[in-house]
Amino acid sequence: MVETSVGKMLMEEVSPVVMILCTPLVEETFLKNGLSFVETLKPFCNFSNIDVPVRTSGDQLYRLRKFTLRLFNASDIKQPNVEVAKKRLEHVITEAGEKVFHDLKSDPPQITDILSNPEAEIAPTWFQYYNKELIRTLSFSEHEAFDHPVACLLVVSSKDEQPINKFVDLFNTNRLPSLLNDGVMDPKILKHYLLVHDNQDATTERTSKVLSEMRSTFGNNECNLLCTNSSKEGNVEHQANPWASFKSSVSADKLGCALTGDDIVEIKDLMQEFASRHIIPYMEQKVRELNQQISATRKGLRNQIKNLWWRKGKDEVPDSTKGSMYTFSSPESQIRILGDYAFMLHDYELALSSYRLISTDYKLDKAWKHYAGVQEMMGLAYFISDQSIKEVEYCMENAFSTYMKLGRSGFQNATRCGLWWAEMLKARDQYKEAASAYFRICGEEPLHAAVMLEQASYCFVLTKPAMLNKYGFHLVLSGDHYKNCDQVNHAIRTYRSAISVYESTTWSHIKDHVHFHIGRWYALVGMHDVAVRNMLKVLDCGNQSKPTQEIFLRDFFDIVQKTGMKHEVVGLQLPFINMSSLQVIYEDHRTYASLASALVQERIWQSLEDDIIPSLNSGKSNWLELQSKLLPKKYKESNVCVAGESVKVDLEFKNPLLISTSITRVSLICELTSNSDDIKLVDKEPSSLSLGTESSAEHNQGTTSGFSSFTLSEMDFTLGGGEKKMVRLTVTPSEEGILKIVGVRWGLSGSVVGVHYFKSVPAKAKTNKGRRKNKLTPTDALKFLVIKSLPRLEGSIDHLPEQLYAGDLRYLVLELKNKSESPIKNLKMKISHPRFVNPGNHEEEVTTEFPDCLKKGHEKNIVQCDTSSIFSFPKDVSLQGDKSLRWPLWLRAAIPGTISLYFTIYYEMENVSSIMKYRTLRMHYNLKVLPSLETSFEITPSPSRLQEFLVRMDIVNRANSDSFQIHQLSTVGGRWGISLLERVDTILPFKSLLPGQALSCHFMIKDNRKSGTEEDKTMSVLASQTDVKLFTQDDEEKFFDIVNSPLASFHESERSSQGTSDQLSPNTVDFILISHLAKSSNSSGVADVPKILSHHSCHNRIRSSNPLSWSLDGPQTLYHDFSTPLCEIQLKLIIRNTSTGLSSVSFNTTDCLPDAAAPTPSSGNQSGWRYVPDVTEEMKLTSDVMGSRLGKPPSSMESSPPFIWSGLSSTKVQIQPLSTTEIPLQISVFAPGIYNLSSYKLTWELSEHEDASSTSSGTCQGYPYYLSVLQSE
């Protein structure tokens, strides 16, 4: 254990002390070298190969290989002053801090580098020097003997007058240290006499004479001569200056400048001879004498019992904490001297036996400081002799705790004990325990605690595995203590080391604490640039409380302002830039009317533009393929933009703090390179493209608007606490070239400029063939090929409402402008929702006020429009300069909900650019359509008339707060006539439909086609017969025209949108209901009051469970002279197949015989008369026609007179789909009366779509048909 660091320290600090007494002329001689006499000899007092035989207590010799002497002037042999020692230690720390000042500008050490360093390089080297100085503050203690002088070296100059007398006077009692005079130390020590000869100004004869006289007086062996300063010029330079480490306050070039190499050798020989021939033999002799004396008086059983008996009464003695109980001559002191001498002579067994012997005495005497000191030496002896670890720990713990019990008087000794203990634990690789030892000796002194905490931190990093969190935590604690003692350099140094620990952790609070304080401390030492760098790390401190954030921000701006300059900071985190929100909006052949249009997904626009964008050559190509064929190869991955048109970048800025922050002058960082050769290549035709060498480029980089090559927008805004804001920044190139958007910059508090660069990292994407290719990230979309200026179409739709009711019909105007002098032509437009928007006609604009222009009588203003998906503007339409085009549009809110309308307008340019022959204008609008009226229709055949049908219309007002008035109901197509079954005021008693109100009303419609057996021929219907008025306010008000556009066009779109499986069936009816907002309604649902609403119901099928419709045609009343008993009556049964399948119908009659139902006379009625219902009652039918009969006659008239079917009684016919057939019939009656001719049945079989496997069948009872036969007069 001698080779360990603690072993070397023990060799230096627990070694024999030599007291130096010299005359002033001796000091004067050595000051020529910038050194005192003691300083001159110190480098030569450490002997690593002395090889001296020693015999102490036993007969066996051992050899000393290493030995050290400590030299002190007699005036320095005293207990150090506490304040002076404290200042000395503070000076050591300050001096070490000044040496590391210049290293503070470098980057902080990384934890990986720290862990990879050798153990000796991890902790600062000045710790060892500090620890030694700390131990030396306890020099010359009264309870220890290893600091007692072993010998005295008396030194006189050959230039001194009466040198012999000087030697005598030097050892005078008045000149000796007080510790020797007071009896603490033994004044009877070895004396050695040295004569110093200065070769520069002393004579050799005198020196020889004085030396002879000395030897005759003090003895030949006790006297020596030292010749020095052999260099006459005094300018000797030593390559390896031995005094540099001992005298750092003087330049190394001046140290020993008068000493030659021979002089140094002479000094070295002198000290080695002094140690080996005088000090060691003297100590050896002293140890033998003391051991012999102590063995005779204290060792053995008899002496031990005697000693205990003598100390029996000392148990009542109070604790000795002040003053000394023992003189140098007391038995206890002699034993302690024996132990310390043996320790210094490396006889650790003898030292241990002496310490154990005296330990009991001190304990019995309650001399706790002496006891602790002995325990401390025992622990050191156990360790250095490599004995039991438990014994070492027991002794050191015992010593430490005893020192601490003494209070403040024992703390310094406890500190020294803790240092020894920590070093011993480190030597055994017990770094965690060593850290605990350092922590225990921190004490209340902040500066001392700082050094101990820092040493403890390095122990944590040396553990296996490294305890990095504890390492960083103790460094932070140490830094705080350094700062409290104004040791700013050391505070910065420790915090710098702690940064590497917390940089990769999620402990944001301690990271902010470290960066904030180290930033403030850098500012204190004048390193403002480094201070700003560290303070920047805490700007993203959203996890901190609001007051803490205010402090951070205030101090940051104070530091920045003190620098007196603007700081450009790359990666500034205030505000935070969300790169995932980066969105680039630019216009190539695709232009946008608004931001909403630019944010629409590209696939939506592409699907809309597929039919209007022309193909390149013969094959169909998209824009990317077209671009790749026309651009130079090195610009294939670049986007294309047009000079004079801005490129927009959307970025989200977020304030990570809880306090408001003002952001100023936010702009993009761009580069525009003008490359004339490549621009010329772009403007050539594809067939003539060729690649040459790259020409020189002019590089422009703009930070503010004002460069001629491009213009940048700037924005100022304020972000509240935690607020996010999407900011749009633009760059407008004015020249052709290559434009790169490389980043964004902003100002903070006028002194800090934040810069964020958009980094591009290629990502790997796998192709279909399994190969990998580079796929560029979105930031690579920030490179543009700028081509020359092109015409750009601007468009808008006037008075387009954002919110309206379902069915609301509006007249709008599309306005198009081209501010360029270059004309555009061949305009086409495609609309995503033809159901909502229908282009009008520009040649005949609407002149009558809307919506009166849609009423009948104004057909000349409305022209039927083409309903194709692509609308082509007239060929002669051309726009340039300030000329604008206003084109009418019809808007109808077809269905409720949020609707996105997309418009694409295609146009071509002439003689402008070879790579861009056309452009498109994209327009996008969102409509919120609120529910209004909801209609449903149910149509059933009339039970008595073939071509007539009953219609039930159900209306519900789904609006939340508005009422609607119904204007008209119309059938579409001219086939169906419509009429009311009720009065209007009966249908709508309140004239309007309130919110949530439901209404049912009935109408009669008639199929006006001419019936035939094979083909139905359409018969035109008057327009007035297809509409019914549902209002009473103004009888003269005209109907809305549903035949012409826009209502007819929108109805065609509705027919396509509402298409069902039955839409091809001719047995369906379309209705249009026209309404408007009630005048009493406040129209809270929409911003603009709707003037007309159209509700389209298409493909309403006639509902019936029977595929047949029939009627019995014949007279209603007949007169006959019953004098002739038989009356024959001719009838006709008309049957219509209302289905789309082939129908087979069987007709069968049933006779009513005279005895089957004899007439029953009743009072007041003529025999044979029966109740005849009123005709008006017959017309009041319900919708459930097929399952009901007409009103029944009174019960007294339920019987009928007899009649027979005298003609065809049964037959079977085939009826084609939607065809009619007639069957002739005849009955015979025998008496006057009213006859119900319903005694027949129709049995049918239906084959659907000529598929014999899909059939249905049924039986129908005849309808009631009342025939009145009266007696003729």
Main beta-sheet strand count, sense and barrel state: 8 strands, mixed
Cα shape: elongated
The separation of the N and C termini measures: 159 Å
Q: Total number of helical segments? A: 31
Report the count of strand segments.
Answer: 52
Rg from C-alpha positions?
Answer: 60 Å
Beta-strand percentage range: 25-35%
Query: What percentage of residues falls in helices of 4 or more residues?
Result: 25-40%
Calculate the mean pLDDT score and round it: 80
Class of secondary structure makeup: alpha+beta
Low-confidence stretches: 616-621, 679-707, 761-778, 860-865, 1012-1018, 1154-1200
In terms of quaternary structure, the protein is: single chain
Explained architecture:
There is one protein chain. The chain has about 1250 residues and is α+β, with helices and mostly antiparallel strands. It is about 30% helix and about 25% strand. The chain is built from 31 helices and 52 strands. Strands 10, 13, 15, 16, 18, 20, 21 and 24 form an eight-stranded mixed sheet that branches. Strands 12, 26, 28, 30, 32 and 33 form a six-stranded mixed sheet that branches. A hairpin with a 7-residue loop joins strand 50 (about 1240-1245) and strand 51 (about 1255-1260). Helix 11 crosses helix 13 (about 330-345), helix 16 packs antiparallel against helix 17 and helix 22 runs antiparallel to helix 23 (about 530-535).
